[in-house]
Amino acid sequence: MPDTKESPEFIEACRLADVPAGGSLKVDLFGTAIAVVRTAEGVFAIRDACSHADVLLSEGEVEGCTIECWLHGSQFDLRTGAPLSLPAVVAVPVYAVRLIGEGDDTVVEVASTPTVVSPTDSSATSQAATEEL
Ligand code: FES
């Protein structure tokens, strides 16, 4: 019987040094806009589109483990993609991240398969890749 729980494929997204601390970088991977976000808690990847309307989340403010949509102010949990405030009520896909290398040469890789959770799913796990940030 085939293994249906294969590890996701990871694709190089950017250099860690290109992502501002406490900010985000828009990258295009597998035909999809992804926001790579660097926080004190780690590096996250979230689809770069608000679930309320087609607005780039990478243009929003990063606070803790959240990113805020600049248009109407919904905040999204970067670990799960779940909306934490209205008007958005649908989660945004998030992607597992891993960091390869050290120092200025550290590369951010993003999983090619997103994880989408229900806004009420409390069992979601962190997607962050951490190092000395
Ligand atoms: S477009 Fe993002 S909250 Fe409305």
UniProtKB/TrEMBL annotation:
GO molecular function, one term: 2 iron, 2 sulfur cluster binding
CDD domains in the cross-refs: Rieske_RO_ferredoxin
Domain Rieske: 11-106
Pfam family, one: Rieske
Stored PROSITE patterns: RIESKE (PS51296)
Keyword Metal-binding: yes
The entry's keywords: 2Fe-2S, Iron, Iron-sulfur, Metal-binding
Protein known as: Unannotated protein
Source organism of the structure: freshwater metagenome
Lineage: unclassified sequences, metagenomes, ecological metagenomes
